[in-house]
Amino acid sequence: MNESSWGAPPGAGQWGPPDHAPASSLRGVAPPVPAGPVYDWGDAAQTRPMPVVPGPGGHQDDDREHRDIRENRDHLDDRGAARLSGPLFRDEKPQEPMPTSRSGSDSSPDSEKPKKKSAGRNLRAAIGVGVGLGVIIVASLFVYKPVFIGVIAIAVVVGLWELTSRLAERKDIKVPLVPLAVGGTAMVVAGYVRGAEGAWVAMALTALAVLVWRMTEAPENYLRDVTAGVFAAFYVPFLATFVALMLAAEADGPQRVLTFLLLTVVSDTGAYAVGWRFGKHKLAPRISPGKTREGLVGAVLFAMVAGALCMEFLIAHGAWWQGLLLGLAVAASATLGDLGESMIKRDLGIKDMGTLLPGHGGIMDRLDSLLPTAPVVWLLFVVFVGSG
C-alpha cells in the first residue's frame, strides 16, 4: 500500500501512517479506505482524528477505533450533515434531468415561443361602444343643440360620480356629490347661454356650495374633503363647459365641436396604433408604462393631418396651416390629459375609473384627454376665426 491511497498527506485533514513507521506496526489496524476519491460527509465540521497506530492493547484499540467511527457517523447523521440527496463523492456531479417536450422531439417548449403582441383590451367591445357613442353625439349635435347640452351634462354627472366614488373607496375622501352634480350641470348650461362669464359665476357658486354642504358633517378632514371637492368641480364640469362655449357659436358651432372631437379621437388613435406597432422607447414609464415616444409622434402626425383637413373643409374662414397648429396643440394637450388622469389613478391604486363602458372603462377614462383639450381648442378657434 502506498501513501496516495490514503488521500492527502498528514496535516491536510487526512490521517495516514507515518513515513517511518515499520510494517510490523500496522498489524491489527482496520482495513484502509480503498484507493480513489475519499468520501465526503458534507460541509460539517471535521470529526476528531482516528488513531492509526495501535497501542499495547492491540485488538482493544481496534475495537475502540471502530466504535469511534460509528459514533462519528451517527453524530453526522443526527446533525443532517450527511445526506444521500447530494453527490457522494467530491468529483461526482449530480445528474441533470434530460429536457423533455410533449411531442418527444427536440423542439422548444411552448413557453419559449415568442408571444404575439396583445392590444391590452377588448377591441371588439371598444370599437362597438365607440361607434355607438359617436352616433349619439353626432345625432344630438346636428339635430338639436340643446340635446347635445344634455349629453354633456349627463357625462359630467356620471364622471363626477365615478371620481368621487373612487376617492371615497381608495382614500376615504368624502366629497359631496349633490352640490357638485347640480353645480356642474349649471356650469354647462350657463356656459352655453351666458358664455364664459356665466361659466365662471357658476363655478364660484359650486365651490361655495361644496364648502357649505360639507359643514353638515364632522369637522375632521374638512379641509381635505372640500379641497378635493373644488378640484373635482374644476376638473370635470368646468373644463367640459368649454365644449358648450364652442357649440354656442352661431355660424359653425356644431362643426367646431365635431372638429374638437375628431382631432382628440384621431390623436388617441394615432398614438395607440403607432405605439402598439412600433413603440420601443417609453414616454413616461413611472406614470403610464404603455405610452411610448413613437406613439406620441403618431399622435402628432395623425392630429396635424386631421386638423388641416377639418380647418379647410369644416370651419368657416379656416386655413389648412391653422389646422396643423391646432392638431399639434390637440396632440400635446390630449397626451398631457391622459397622463394627468394616469397620475390620479396611480395615486388611487386603480386601473380604470369605472366599468360603465365595456372595452373603455368608465366615463372618466374617455374624458381624460377630452377635458383638458376643450379649453385649448376653444382658445385657438377664438384666435384663428373668432368666437363666432
Residue stretches low in confidence (pLDDT < 50, at least 5 long) are 1-30, 33-60, 76-94, 99-112
Strand order of the largest sheet: 1-2
The main sheet comes to: 2 strands, antiparallel
Q: Give the helix level as a range of percent.
A: 55-70%
Instruction: Give the H and E element order.
Output: HHHHHHEEHHHH
Distance between the termini: 113 Å
Q: How many H/I helical runs?
A: 10
Summary tags:
388 residues; disordered N terminus; mainly alpha; two-stranded antiparallel ribbon
Task: Summarize the structure in words.
With 388 residues, the protein is mainly α. Helices cover 59% and strands 2% of the residues. The chain contains ten helices and two strands. Strands 1-2 form a two-stranded antiparallel ribbon. A hairpin with a 3-residue loop joins strand 1 and strand 2. Helix 2 crosses helix 3, helix 6 packs antiparallel against helix 7 and helix 7 crosses helix 8. The N terminus is likely disordered.
